[in-house]
Amino acid sequence: MCSIFVKTERQQEWLDKIGKLADEFEKTAAYYDEHAQFPAEHIQKLRDSGYTALTVGKDYGGEGISLYDMLLFQERLAKGDGPTALSIGWHLSVMGELAEGNSWDRDVFSSLSHEALKGALINRAASEAQTGSPTRGGRPGTHAVKKNGGWIVNGRKTFTTMSPVLDYFLVTAWIEEKQMIGVFLIHKDAEGLAIEETWDMAAMRGTGSHDLVLTDVRLDESMLVELLAGKRTDKINGWLLHIPAVYLGIAQAARDYAVQFAKDYQPNSLKGPIKEVPAVQRHIGEIDLELMKARHFMYHVAELYDDPERRALLTGELGAVKHTVTNTAIDVVDKAMRVVGAKSLARTNPLQRFYRDVRAGLHNPPMDDATIAKLAGIAFSE
């Protein structure tokens, strides 16, 4: 990351702290990937450092960091270990989004915020096998029924990232009597809640994105914290940019590996290292150009979002950032592998892991086709 994006001493202090943790996590990232294990130790160290409390609102004793700040930190963390960064990013983004404003009961949100200050972790559980991404607008099969002054929730959620260590789940469920989707705050110790270890993907293997199973989970009436009138994409939520920030960090790691390899590797057919080969120089130059464009775009849009007056003018920029950065990351890793050659496919080489992990970005919201369709719609509505 270029230091030009660091604007305050506080940002630099946290970048230094996160950088040390990221470098430490990098040493074990391959192990967790190979064994598809969740890096609980990494998450605990982030908790202990105070990182998980950074997006708690100032009104509740947190630092209330900006979106720009979070992206800086998340990119650096992902350079060391992408799955760890993506996992904790969901917690940070949920708390950051809610701190901007929500319709929750004040006492409920105050309690959650103070728990988060002490290290409690939260994520949304909205995806289901039958509905696909919740951003597509499908009705959840998970359902909630009002009974005896409370709620009974049943259903199954997929892609519940960081599920092994989450303290709270924000679960979407269909409420028949309201003909609406409700969001319920459910504690990990609720009777009837279980985690089924189903996560076995080629990419982001260390995110612990298992299934959440809810069987007659009884909740207090106040645990219905949100009612959704439409798609979640109807709301401008810049905090989802934690997703492209992670893939940008992974791409930077791939770039750095390729540059160092080009400096060190000298086949006996050459008089010097391959960094002197024009084709290699072209790949590296193209990589840095693409990273530069993606990084400036992402941080500029983050600055716009952090200004409430300018935020209201954003239309398709947030989706465009995710589309641009994610596809750039895929291209960068591909070029890095071309520099390194067949060695990049060795299971002991980090590039093959980076290659698998950045591909996951295509399936994080918003999807590429939805972003392009939205931009076209904006154009035709002008």
TrEMBL record:
User: Organism's domain of life?
Assistant: Bacteria
Task: Give this protein's Gene Ontology molecular function annotations.
Answer: acyl-CoA dehydrogenase activity; flavin adenine dinucleotide binding
Which ranges carry the Acyl-CoA oxidase/dehydrogenase middle domain?
125-217
Sorted alphabetically, which Pfam families does this protein's record hold? Acyl-CoA_dh_2, Acyl-CoA_dh_M, Acyl-CoA_dh_N
Acyl-CoA dehydrogenase C-terminal domain sequence ranges = 243-361
Q: Mind telling me which InterPro entries this protein's record contains? A: Acyl-CoA_DH_C, Acyl-CoA_Oxase/DH_mid-dom, Acyl-CoA_Oxase/DH_mid-dom_sf, AcylCo_DH-like_C, AcylCoA_DH/ox_N, AcylCoA_DH/ox_N_sf, AcylCoA_DH/oxidase_NM_dom_sf
Domain annotation Acyl-CoA dehydrogenase/oxidase N-terminal: ranges: 8-97
Q: Which UniProt keywords apply?
A: Flavoprotein, Oxidoreductase
Q: Which CDD domains match?
A: ACAD
Q: What is this protein called?
A: Acyl-CoA dehydrogenase YdbM
Q: Which organism is it from?
A: Bacillus licheniformis (strain ATCC 14580 / DSM 13 / JCM 2505 / CCUG 7422 / NBRC 12200 / NCIMB 9375 / NCTC 10341 / NRRL NRS-1264 / Gibson 46)
Q: What is the lineage of its organism?
A: Bacteria, Bacillati, Bacillota, Bacilli, Bacillales
Gene that encodes it? ydbM
